[in-house]
Amino acid sequence: MKSGVTVTATGEALVAPDQATINLAASVVRGDAASAISEVSRRVEALLASMHQAGIADVQTSDLSLWPEADRNGTPIGFRARNGVKISLSDLSTTGDIIAAGLAALGEGAEMSGVSFGRREVDEAESDARANAWQKAIAKAEQLANHAGLTLGRPLSIQETSLPGIPRPMARAAMAEAVPIEGGATTVTVTLTVRFALLG
């Protein structure tokens, strides 16, 4: 078997996000299942109207559930219904206003499980991260070869793992006023595992 050295290196590139995803929900308890479903539906309809008025078209149901509810003593008190929606934005400057408008439309019992930022296209950032990982892999392999008194040869195998656009969630909130939101930067990560030949 030809002698060689295998190294793993990770490269990263930062890219500004161009989309935001907000997760909102209405959750209510009513004496019977039909009333609970009817009430969350009414609140989500108000949310959809609010989003339509704001010019947001990408709104999708993410969760619709119903289950029996009991008090602390275990006594049944009715049913809880929950209807969650996912709102996608391309204008990040409106994120705080959309959150505030959504929570106001849902009313009492409104929930927000988070907001995340990402990017639709990450090809250029991924290329930069790959180049960065490759330079690190070569540097690491050359150092090991030098320590062994050998010369680094050509690459024999290359494996890549990519993590494009890692989202950054925001903590749960429950306020109706506009909230300051900063999208920050999205990190694109590429990890390379490379085996190089070693020459005597």
In short:
The protein is α+β, with helices and mostly antiparallel strands and 200 residues long. The chain has helices spanning 33-53, 95-106, 123-147, and strands spanning 4-15, 19-30, 59-70, 76-89, 110-118, 151-166, 186-199. Strands 3-4-2-5 form a four-stranded antiparallel sheet, covered by helices on one side.
Which descriptors apply to this entry?
elongated; 200 residues; Translation Initiation Factor IF3; four-stranded antiparallel sheet; alpha+beta; 29% helix; Alpha-Beta Plaits; three-stranded antiparallel sheet
Q: What is the alpha-carbon Rg in Å? A: 25 Å
CATH class division of the largest domain: Alpha Beta
- Structurally, how many domains make up the residues? 2
What is the H/E string?
A: EEHEEHEHEE
CATH architecture term of the largest domain: 2-Layer Sandwich
Can you summarize the main beta sheet? 4 strands, antiparallel
Task: Determine the structural class based on helices, strands and strand pairing.
Answer: alpha+beta
Number of helices: 3
Which descriptor suits the 3D outline?
elongated
Could you characterize the architecture of this molecule?
- With 200 residues, the chain is α+β, with helices and mostly antiparallel strands.
- It folds into two domains: 4-16 and 121-199, 2-Layer Sandwich (Translation Initiation Factor IF3); 19-118, 2-Layer Sandwich (Alpha-Beta Plaits), CATH 3.30.70.
- The protein is built from three helices and seven strands.
- A four-stranded antiparallel sheet has the order 3-4-2-5, with helices on one face.
- Strand 3 (59-70) and strand 4 form a beta hairpin.
- The longest helix has 25 residues, at 123-147.
- It is elongated.
- The two termini are 14 Å apart.
